Every structure is written in structure tokens, then in C-alpha cells.
Amino acid sequence: MLLILISIPGVAQNSAGGGSGPPPPQGATPPPGLPIDDGLIVLFVAALIYGIYIIVKYSKKHTQA
């Protein structure tokens, strides 16, 4: 009996207009894209210099032996 008396106010609130839920989201702006080409030339030049360094180091090591 006590459970029924406690439940009635909760049911009455939901039927009185409390069950509509939140409004739909507005057209939110998408998150900003991250730039993937900033510093790409610097990275390419660094990789090229490192590659040349490894080739020269490898060739010196094998020509002396």
C-alpha cells in the first residue's frame, strides 16, 4: 500500500508533461580538422638527410673492410 502511495506522484509528474525529453541538438559545428601538411617539407628533408647519412655510413664501413 505504501509503495502505491509513493508511486502515484511519480507517475502523475511523467503524465503531466515531464516526459517530453530534451530538445534535439542544434546544427553544431564539426570539430576543426587538424592540419596534416604543416611541416611536411621539413620532415621530408630531414628523412632525406638521414637516409643519405645512413647510406654514406654503410658504404664507408663496407669499403674499408
Please write the string of helix (H) and strand (E) elements. Answer: HH
The poorly predicted ranges are none
Shape: rod-shaped
Helix content: 55-70%
Query: What is the radius of gyration?
Result: 35 Å
Q: What about the largest sheet?
A: none
Report the average pLDDT across residues.
79
Helix-and-strand structural type:
mainly alpha
Total number of beta strands: 0
Number of helices: 2
Oligomer: single chain
Task: Give the DSSP E fraction (strand runs of 2 or more residues).
Answer: under 5%
Distance between the termini: 98 Å
Question: What does this 3D model show about the protein?
Answer:
- Residues 21-33 have a biased composition (Pro residues).
- Residues 13-33 are annotated as: Disordered.
- The chain crosses the membrane at residues 39-56.
- It is built from two helices and no strands.
- The protein has helices at residues 2-18, 40-64.
- The chain is an all-alpha fold and 65 residues long.
Descriptors:
transmembrane helix, mainly alpha, transmembrane, single chain, 65 residues, rod-shaped, membrane
Blueprint of the fold:
Elements: H1 2-18, H2 40-64
Please summarize what this structure is.
The protein has 65 residues and is mainly alpha-helical. It has helices spanning 2-18, 40-64.
